[in-house]
Amino acid sequence: MPNQKHVTLLRYGIKVWNPWRLNYPEIRPDLRGAIIRINLNGVDLSYADLSQADFSMTDLIEAKLFKADFSRANFSVANLCEANLCGANLSGANLKGANLKGADLSGADLSGANLKGANLKGANLAEAKLIVTNLNNANLTRVNLTRANLIATQALNTNFKQAIFTEAKIDRWCISEFTNFEAIVCDYLYWKSNQKENQPKQSKLTLEEFNKLFQRAM
């Protein structure tokens, strides 16, 4: 159960919530399982416990959500455009249809999360965990996946156009003929979790070469 005082403060909006966070930085907000249906653009929920909370259809544009626990939380159709989710725990979270355009998810744990149909265009997923993550029909155009862990990822009809895959780990992927790898950037990658494929220093992996390596990881 969440701390009801914390839930009440948050429902007053960011004009009350954010100053309270500044005044009491030592308090870790406890919003476990809370149902929130208000405009939270620019809110500071960093380091908070929001496991199993429900933020579906909520506006969280440019919100500070870094290092927060969102495990098994519901963000379906939420607007997280430009949000800072660096290092957040989103394992098992529902982000179906969410807008994460330009969001910072570097180092975030998205293992087992549902991102089906989500918009992650231009997002930063460097060093993120995407193990057994559902990316079906998602838009990952120009996403940074440097050193991301993409083991057993579902990527049917996913758009990876111009995405950066350098040093990513791929293994046991599920893709379709409509998964788009056009103009990707990849100097080298790891397949089978820990084996590196090097390219000559003078060039990057071509799409054809990437596809050949990719087939080994399926």
Top-tier CATH class: Mainly Beta
CATH H-level superfamily: E3 ubiquitin-protein ligase SopA
Distance between the termini: 41 Å
| Helicity, as a percent range | 10-25%
Q: Report the radius of gyration as a whole number of Å.
A: 18 Å
Query: Kindly state the mean pLDDT as a whole number?
Result: 91
Number of helical regions: 3
The largest sheet is: 4 strands, mixed
Overall spatial form: elongated
Structural class, please?
A: little secondary structure
Total domain units: 1
> SSE order in H/E notation?
HHEEEEEEH
Number of strands: 6
Low-confidence stretches: 198-203
Strands in their spatial order, largest beta sheet: 1-3-5-6
At CATH level 3, the topology is Pectate Lyase C-like
Q: What is the second-level CATH architecture?
A: 3 Solenoid
* Share of β-strand residues: 5-15%
Description of the structure:
- Helix content is 13%, strand content 7%.
- With 218 residues, the chain is low in regular secondary structure.
- It has a single domain, classed as E3 ubiquitin-protein ligase SopA (Pectate Lyase C-like).
- It has a four-stranded mixed sheet with strand order 1-3-5-6, with helices on one face. A two-stranded parallel sheet has the order 2-4.
- Strand 5 and strand 6 (195-197) form a beta hairpin.
- The longest helix is centred in the first third of the chain and has 10 residues, at 14-23.
- The protein is elongated.
- Mean pLDDT is 91; it is low at 198-203.
